[in-house]
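Summary: Need help interpreting a holo structure output

Steps to reproduce:
1. Submit the protein chain below together with the SMILES for zinc ion.
2. Request a joint structure prediction with the ligand placed.
3. Inspect the C-alpha cell block that comes back.

Expected: a single structure record containing both the chain and the bound molecule.
Actual: see attached output.

Input attached:
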Amino acid sequence: MGECVTIDQLVNIEQCEICCTPVGYPNVIFYRNNGRTLCANCYKMIKEEKIDREYEKNNFLKLLDSIKNTDKRYHAIFAYSGGKDSTVALYSAIKDFGLKLLVFNFDNGFKGERVINNINNVIRDLNVDFYQIKSQTRYTIIQDINNSIFPCGRCSSLKTLYPMLTKMFDVKYVITGIECVYNNEVIRNRGTFYQINWPAVFNWSKNDIESRIKNIPWEDPNYGPFDSDCLCPIIALRKIYGSSVSPNLDLYYGKKEQHVVPYYARLVRYGAISKADFYKIICTNLIVDNECLKEEFEKIARENGN
Ligand SMILES: [Zn+2]
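--- attached output ---
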C-alpha cells in the first residue's frame, strides 16, 4: 500500500481532461490527441452531438399537451427516490404543470429512517397516490459491502420494473429526477413507454435545485457526499476506507470491482459535480459519523450474525 494521495498530487496525475479519471485506471481506455487526454467515455460523449436545450424544452411542452389530454387516472408514473433532485422534480411536475401522478418508490433496504421520513412527508404534503416496492437488494448489497465492493449500480435492475408498472397503471410516461444526462436522454423512447428526465428538460443547475428545495418539507439526511436518498455509498466508503484514514489511490486500483473512481468520474462527466468536488471526494476522509450510519452498521452486523 502506497502513500495517501493528496489533492495536489491527484490534480497533477495525468488524467482525462473532462472527468478526471487518472490515466492507467483499470479497464479504461485513454486517447491522447493534439495535447488532449480523454477517457473513452468522455471521448464518445464529445463526439456525439450536443443537445439543443431550447429545442428539447419546446419538444417537451408540446408533448405535455398530449400527456395531459387523457381521461385516465394518471398522466404518468413518477419514479421517486426521495432524494433532493427527484423531490424538486416531483413538486414541479405537480405544482407547476398540474400533472396527475402515481408516485412510485423502489426501496432497496438502505433508504434509512431520514429518507423514509422525507418520502412520507412529501407524499402527505402533496396528497398523491403512492406505490412502493420493497426489494431483496439489501441482501446482495450487504454481501458487496462485506467484500469491500462499491454497491452502486445494483439498483439499476429497477429499470426492468418500468415496463410492468406502466402496463399495470395504464400510463405511457415515466418521469424521473435524473439530471446528469446529455445528448438525446432528455426524453427517451423506452419502447413501451417514454422516460422524461425532468431536471434535464428544464436544464436546472445545482442552484436552481437548492433554491427550490427550500420551500419543500424535506430535510437533508446528510448521508455523505452528494447522496440524499441512499445510505449505500457512505457505508461502502466507510467499509472500504475505514473510519479515519484518507483514501489511498492504490486502493482504487487494487480491486477491479471497486467503482468509486468510475462512479464519481461519471458525475463529473455529466456535470453533476465539479472537478474540485471529485478531488475532495477521492482525497479526503468523507466519513459522516451520524446516528443513522451507526444504527445501520449495527443492523448489518446483526444480519451478518455477529
Ligand atoms: Zn473522462
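--- end attachment ---

Reviewer comment: DSSP finds 14 helices and eight strands in the chain. The pocket of zinc ion is lined by residues 16, 18-19, 21, 38-39, 41-42, 269 (CB under 6 Å).
Status: needs-info
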